[in-house]
Specification:
Oligomer: heterodimer
Mean pLDDT of chain B: 76
Number of domains of chain A: 2
CATH topology of the largest domain in chain A: Beta-lactamase
Order of helices and strands of chain B: HHHHHEEEHHHHHHHHHHHHH
Largest interface: A-B, 43 and 50 residues
Radius of gyration of chain A: 33 Å
Low-confidence stretches of chain A: none
Number of helices of chain B: 18
Strand order of the largest sheet of chain B: 1-2-3
Number of domains of chain B: 2
Distance between the termini of chain B: 22 Å
Structural class of chain A: alpha+beta
Structural class of chain B: mainly alpha
Mean pLDDT of chain A: 88
């Protein structure tokens, strides 16, 4: 009998020991339960700041914010409701909402059942929402575009994706992040700082009270406003001129490097990329003719064509292989294997070589630069020439504040060594470089900057689009002068000749007795179709206020399309009125895109 | 000597003290988990519980003044009344949480299943107290005992209250104390092991382990090596054939069904032998089989029950009952979080967040121990466990000193029921047992539960006080 009492007693005793050991484990040793308890009882509610606004140089709003409303619910606290009338009210398919609720049935975190309702949409359901007390509305702000302009420049923002979440742990699912343009490059300025409110919640996810009376709450800080260097009016005008054409316009204020206008055509309506509209519209626009999402001003590389003649002229002058009085008698240029044709023949002065864009003259100049006895080999002369070109910001990164900027193409001499064999090439082999064709490729931005450099007589400021950040300073690198390897005195004859281009040369179409415009036509050879029309110009000649580069793809000679556009841009910017209205009409109505077969 | 002073002298004041400690602690924790910050309200749960405690103390006093002879003589009538109540609750009772087990009387609810334990204990004591009752030798004695336990168990199962039905297995302690073989106790614990491991281990593995245990048991009881080897041969042949079917012919049978079939086959032989030789111990093998099957199914049954109660709080139109909970489940998880977050010394009285904000379901009834764990920490919860253990030892001691068989059986019934409730409830809250909805004695909110445990205890203490004069 004692045996049995002992057995029963042991069962009771051992049970108690097991329980105490288990309690010791979960209460004292294992700390994970404490953490779970916090997650259980506290709800961290993110306070989203609105993004900073983006202004143009004159304080006009380019991008601001607009309120949207998310309809949310904590499924755990959801009680029975009339699904049919709810779906009717909110216009959500019944199947969709049931699926969503079932999927989140164990979730204490609020889920969004209807995203980004606009004001009108929200107002329509607001009155009836009291019937569904478990659902509530949370306000978020999204981008609003006041000018509908410069869309590639300002870029767009969207909800973070998996990669963003991985790259930066600041972001949580549902946050917005700048995806392109200024939105991307200035993301950290624009986004502000998220705030957080901590609440104590019960098991059904109902908020009971602020945690520790709000002691640990953090206020959201709204994003800083950004003032761009863009002139919204000029930008819009440029976009109008470029409509139905493929190409770009870049206008820079030479005295500061500020980009006044940066047009890439075709463009798109930035409104289409706001919030939930993004995903459906993105694919559509991505596939449109002319690739509106592709920012040609920064990304497209073209041979500079005849606009490059000024660079070779300046290098020739600096290297003293020519002088402003060098006159050559020409009839084309015999490059050995072929003849470089020229529409100018006979005796050509330095000035007229630019004014009338003589090819043969610059072949001779280039021959003199590359075969300069100063250098032991062609290759070394070429390398020196390359350094000159690069000092204009051509073929190197400009390090602007724009994303996706390209470096451009200018090959080192070793490239030709490899291609033709070391010592087996000379100036004639690469003679197309004399007239800006062949193994060269620069972006419209780089060519605009080159124009600004000529306008400045030898230096440039790194082009940039940000003028001011509210409560912040902009990078000092934009205040730094970058000098070319050309002495300032050599620019005068070149600029004089450029003035002649407009007053009595290939750019006569934009001659304006009121403004001294200096310009140069160019044609970028296009192996795929009709050549691209290029025009660069700056004005006024003294104390230039604007330097502009215009590219119109598949438009033929620079004088027909690109030059008038540059002229109108300059006139618009400097005088704010258009005298050549017939020209404006022709350009705006000109359609170079509809008949185009894009390969 | 007047009755009053005789009772006062002989009553076990130590048990009364422990009872008062437990009830007070229980009420404090009910208060903590249902207190909302407003002023004291008698209509609230803690208010109702306080009224119940008052009523119980009055009953305690009444019982002590009552004629002690009534107790044994009321056994038959109370057992029959309870059976009638259990039947009528099935017909007229109100359904809550998917089980039909309540009578609503005024503001209070009466759950006959709670009182059924007491009535069954009285009945067992009455029948077992008879001189001719011999559990080990007399087949009819065992049979009558099994019937007394089985009828209320079955009726409660019908109500859909599997938890309360399982409590009746705790009478094994009394039967063991009164002479039942150790192997039966072993089978009981094996059943519990199966039940619990169902949640942690692969089902087939449990069967294989238990099959081996069954064979060892068979070897013991058969006292004949040849017979047990025959059993082993049969079982392994069937299992091998079954496996061959699955592997070679891709027949879709679950492994544990094959094993169950094998044990069933051996069981048949054992039953046959048991009747032929009138040797009851052979029944151990079929008993094992029954135990496996019933425990496996009761797990599912209990789970669906518990889930039904939660479902009602949710949107029924949207969600079908969750059947995908495997493993320990939501409630146990929340319960462990609550207890675990209490740490060594707890968060302080009334400061628990997990219990206060309803993270733990049934926080003032079945999961009341979570409030203890969260607010009083390891120190507080260990204290409660120690108090319960001391209480059980004390009651065992009281039961052992009884001179009448009636009182001892009744005392051990109390020990068994209390132990079962307390251990299963605690094990459930700390994640050692599946969710079985039974209250923690004297702690959990609920009139019926408190009333029947108190009555159970007081009757025994009354019997104990008269141990020298009571002969049944």
């Amino acid at each position: 009998m004692r045996n049995k009492i002992f057995v029963i007693g042991s069962v009771i005793g051992i049970t108690a020991l097991i329980f105490i050991a288990r309690l010791f484990y979960i209460q004292v040793i294992d700390t994970s339960y404490k953490l779970s308890a916090d997650n259980n009882a506290l709800r961290h509610v993110t306070q989203y700041p609105s993004r900073g606004k983006i202004y143009d140089r004159n304080g006009k709003v380019l991008v601001s914010n607009k309120a949207y409303y998310d309809l949310k619910v904590v499924v755990k606290s959801l009680s029975e409701f009339d699904t049919s009338s709810f779906c009717l009210l909110t216009n959500i398919p019944k199947k969709k909402i049931i699926k969503k609720l079932i999927k989140n049935r164990r979730s204490y975190q609020p889920i969004t059942v209807k995203k980004q309702m606009e004001n009108t949409e929200y107002a329509a359901i607001q009155e009836q929402l009291y019937k569904f007390p478990d659902f509530y509305v949370e306000k978020r702000t999204l981008r609003a575009y006041n000018q509908n302009t410069a869309s590639q420049l300002v870029g767009y923002s969207s909800e973070v994706n998996v990669a963003d979440l991985r790259n930066d742990n600041y972001y949580k699912s549902g946050d917005f992040i700048g995806k392109s343009g200024i939105e991307k490059t200035y993301e950290e300025v624009l986004r502000g700082r998220k705030g957080e409110k901590i609440y104590v919640v019960d098991a059904l996810g109902r908020i009971k009270e602020p945690y520790k009376k709000g002691k640990f709450d953090r206020k959201a800080i709204i994003g800083k406003n950004i003032f761009t260097t863009i002139d919204a009016e000029l930008q819009e005008y440029g976009e109008k001129l470029m409509q139905n054409k493929i190409g770009s316009i870049v206008a820079i204020e030479p005295s500061s490097g500020e980009i006044l206008s940066i047009v890439s055509s075709p463009t798109y309506n930035p409104d289409l990329f706001v919030g939930k509209k993004l995903s459906e519209n993105y694919r559509k626009i991505e596939r449109q003719k002319g690739k509106p999402l592709f920012n040609r001003a920064l990304r497209s590389m073209y041979p500079p064509g005849s606009t490059f003649k000024m660079i070779n002229a300046l290098i020739g002058l600096q290297e003293k292989v020519i002088t402003p009085r060098t006159t050559l008698v020409l009839n084309g240029y015999d490059a050995g294997t072929h003849i470089v044709k020229d529409h100018v023949s006979g005796s050509v002065t330095f000035e007229s070589s630019i004014q009338h864009s003589s090819n043969a003259y610059y072949c001779q100049v280039y021959k003199r630069i590359i075969s300069n006895k100063k250098f032991p080999s062609y290759a070394e002369a070429y390398e020196e020439w390359k350094k000159y070109v690069e000092s204009f910001g051509l073929g190197v990164y400009l390090n602007t504040d724009l994303d996706f900027e390209r470096k451009g193409i200018i090959y080192p001499s070793t490239y030709f060594d490899k291609y033709y064999g070391k010592g087996h090439w000379n100036y004639n082999t690469i003679i197309s470089l004399a007239i800006g064709q062949g193994e060269l490729g620069f972006t419209p931005l780089q060519i605009a900057n080159m124009t600004a450099t000529i306008a400045n007589r030898g230096y440039f400021y790194t082009p940039h689009v940000i003028k001011k950040i509210e409560g912040d300073t902009i990078n000092n690198k934009f205040k730094e002068k970058h000098y070319t390897k050309i002495e300032s005195k050599y620019f005068k004859p070149v600029i004089d000749a450029m003035e002649k281009v407009v007053s009595a040369g290939t750019g006569y179409a934009i001659y304006n007795p009121e403004i001294k415009i200096c310009g140069k036509t160019g044609t970028a050879q296009n192996p795929h179709g009709k050549d691209h029309s290029i025009f660069i110009a700056f004005a006024p000649k003294d104390n230039p206020k604007i330097a502009v580069a215009v590219y119109v793809e598949n438009a033929g000679f620079g004088s027909t399309w690109a030059a008038p556009i540059a002229g109108l841009i300059i006139e618009k910017y400097l005088t704010n009125k258009i005298t050549k209205t017939w020209q404006e009409k022709r350009i705006m109505e000109g359609d170079l895109i509809s008949n185009l077969i894009i390969k | 000597m007047p009755i009053k002073s005789k009772i006062a002298n002989n009553i076990d004041w130590f048990s009364i003290l422990i009872y008062l400690i437990l009830v007070t602690m229980g009420w404090m924790n009910i208060f903590s988990s249902s207190y909302t910050g407003s002023s004291f309200e008698f209509g609230s749960r803690y208010g109702k519980q306080l009224i119940m405690i008052g009523i119980n103390i009055i009953i305690l006093i009444i019982i002590f003044f009552m004629n002690g002879d009534i107790i044994p003589s009321s056994a038959y009538i109370s057992y029959i009344i309870i059976l009638l109540l259990l039947v009528s609750v099935l017909l007229f009772g109100s359904a809550t949480n998917g089980s039909k087990s309540w009578f609503s009387i005024g503001g209070f609810k009466l759950q006959p299943a709670e009182l059924a334990k007491l009535a069954t204990a009285l009945m067992l004591a009455k029948v077992g107290g008879k001189d001719k009752f011999k559990l080990t030798k007399d087949f009819r004695s065992l049979f009558s005992v099994l019937i007394i336990i089985a009828i209320p168990t079955f009726l409660i199962l019908l109500q859909g209250d599997a938890g309360s039905a399982l409590v009746f297995t705790s009478f094994i302690f009394v039967l063991y104390r009164q002479g039942l073989s150790f192997y039966w106790l072993l089978i009981f614990f094996l059943g519990i092991v199966v039940f619990i491991s169902y949640f942690f281990i692969n089902i087939s593995l449990i069967f294989i382990i238990l099959t081996i245990l069954a064979l060892i048991a068979h070897r013991y009881v058969s006292r004949n090596a040849k017979e047990s080897y025959l059993g082993l041969l049969i079982i392994s042949t069937i299992i091998l054939l079954g496996l061959a079917l699955i592997v070679l012919f891709n027949v879709k049978i679950k492994v544990h069904i094959i094993i169950a079939f094998a044990i069933f086959f051996v069981s048949l032989i054992a039953i046959f032998k048991a009747f032929k030789k009138m040797f009851l111990n052979y029944l151990i093998v079929p008993a094992l089989l029954l135990m496996y099957i019933s425990s496996i199914y009761s797990v599912d049954y209990v789970f669906e029950n518990i889930l039904q109660s939660h479902q009602s709080a949710r949107i029924t139109i949207l969600f079908s009952p969750d059947k995908d909970i495997t493993g320990v489940g939501y409630q146990t998880h929340q319960s462990k979080i609550a207890i675990g977050s209490g740490g060594f010394s707890g968060k302080g009285y009334l400061k628990g967040t997990q219990t206060k904000y309803d993270f733990v379901p049934e926080q003032d009834t079945d999961y009341i121990f979570c409030t203890v764990g969260e607010e009083w920490g390891f120190i507080g919860s260990a204290f409660v466990l120690i108090i319960f253990t001391i209480f059980l030892f004390r009651l065992m001691f009281l039961a052992e000193r009884q001179k009448s068989k009636f009182s001892r059986i009744f005392g051990y019934s109390l020990v068994g029921v209390l132990f079962f409730h307390y251990s299963v409830n605690i094990a459930m809250t700390i994640g050692l047992a599946p969710v079985i909805g039974i209250p923690l004695p004297f702690f959990s909110y609920g009139g019926s539960s408190l009333f029947s445990f108190s009555l159970f205890l007081f009757i025994f203490l009354r019997l104990d006080a008269e141990r020298n004069s009571l002969f049944v």
